[in-house]
Amino acid sequence: MAAGAVGAGDSYGGFRVRLVSELQSKGIRDLAVLRAISQVPRHLFVPAGVRHRAYEDSALPIGGGQTISQPWVQARYLEVLQLTGREKVLEVGAGSGYQTALIAQLADTVFGIERLPALAAEARSALQAAGIHNVTILVGDGTLGWRPFAPYDAILVAAASPSVPAPLIEQLAPGGRLVIPIGDRDTQVLTLLRKVGDQIETTALGDVRFVPLLGEFGFRPTSS
Ligand code: SAH
């Protein structure tokens, strides 16, 4: 787990405290998740033009037609993954790198895959500026997973997919958890899968709206 640190001592601490209270009032209970949100400097992960809105509970544009997800949604993802600090986690759709940073506070190691090289480069700089080092940002099609480092104790997919990409199920460790928005391009159901023996248990967690997962096992890039 990353040696905390990150946001401590900057002038945005008060804003983070307010965001944490807002998330608590909206039902987020997991103390480790709330602590991660109170530590990670979200303003380093959003473009300068929207920095004044960094601690609102809303999605914001991050360039390339993509968005950094709403903090409440990110907190929900992290609650259902039930990380203990020891896991190796794969994140598909690293985007700004903010959720990668949150996972880094809650797990041992994070591999974040991002399809757009420019976003991946910005995510790397923001993570470095935040002093977070137990993460690796990779560029590629995350619907294929990332075989060299598999299996993963948890997999988080931050973009909408018509179905669960088969390589991600294969690369999930026994007992592992995978969270993914499943549906069409307009609305999806946030879905939790657990690998139990050779069975997959599935739980629907509620409606969400994400940008599309574009790749071999997601939506086809040509129709985007
Ligand atoms: N967790 C991110 C959310 C980013 S939005 C954050 O906190 O900022 C989803 C991201 O998924 C976008 O950056 C998009 O470019 C990326 N994406 C879409 N399809 C992908 C794929 N096949 N592999 C990897 N990344 C993908």
Task: Record the SSE blueprint.
Layout: H1 13-25, H2 31-39, E1 60-63, E2 66-68, H3 71-81, E3 88-92, H4 98-106, E4 109-114, H5 117-129, E5 135-139, E6 152-157, H6 166-170, E7 172-183, E8 188-196, E9 199-208
Parallel strand pairs: 3-4, 3-6, 4-5, 6-7
Antiparallel strand pairs: 1-2, 7-8, 8-9
The structure holds S-adenosyl-L-homocysteine.
Residues 62, 66-69, 92-93, 95-96, 98-99, 113-116, 119, 141-143, 158-159, 211, 213-215, 218 line the site of S-adenosyl-L-homocysteine (SAH).
Characterise the protein shown here.
With 224 residues, the chain is α/β, with parallel strands linked by helices. It has a single domain, classed as Rossmann fold (3-Layer(aba) Sandwich). It contains six helices and nine strands; from the N terminus they run H-H-E-E-H-E-H-E-H-E-E-H-E-E-E. It has helices at 13-25, 31-39, 71-81, 98-106, 117-129, 166-170; strands at residues 60-63, 66-68, 88-92, 109-114, 135-139, 152-157, 172-183, 188-196, 199-208. The strands form two sheets. It has a seven-stranded mixed beta sheet with strand order 5-4-3-6-7-8-9. Strand 8 and strand 9 (199-208) form a beta hairpin. The longest helix has 13 residues, at 13-25. It is globular, with a radius of gyration of 16 Å. It binds S-adenosyl-L-homocysteine. S-adenosyl-L-homocysteine is lined by residues 62, 66-69, 92-93, 95-96, 98-99, 113-116, 119, 141-143, 158-159, 211, 213-215, 218.
